[in-house]
Write a structure and sequence with these properties.
The two termini are about 20 Å apart. The chain is about 65% helix and about 0% strand.
């Protein structure tokens, strides 16, 4: 789900009776949806990792097919890509600003 799509969902949620609360409520819903989306992504990543274990492809980078380092799998057991590919792909598909997310908690 793109950030723009989430913004559209947020804009359709209940309109508060007090207009002064609008920006605050929208921001809280944004954080909630944002976090929910991240949780869903993590869940999908873990489910995908479990499938890769079944298919004996766990620990192999899905992009370059090189083994993912044990150190990386130790830190991110559901890692689908090696560090190099993750950085390349992550830079292309990043939708959320981690700094904004952390400061909102
Ligand atoms: Zn790779």
């Amino acid at each position: 789900m793109s950030a723009q799509k989430i913004a559209q969902v947020v804009s359709r949620l209940d309109v508060p009776s007090d207009e002064g609360d609008l920006s605050q409520q929208s921001h809280e819903e944004w954080i909630f949806l944002n976090r929910n989306t991240l949780d869903m992504k993590l869940l999908r990543d873990i489910q995908a990792a479990l499938r890769r274990i079944e298919q004996s492809t766990y620990g192999v980078c899905a992009a370059c097919e090189e083994p993912i380092s044990a150190k990386r799998l130790d830190a991110v057991p559901w890692a689908k890509f090696c560090v190099r590919c993750q950085e390349r792909i992550g830079a292309e598909t990043a939708e959320f600003d981690d700094d904004d997310f952390d400061s909102a908690r």
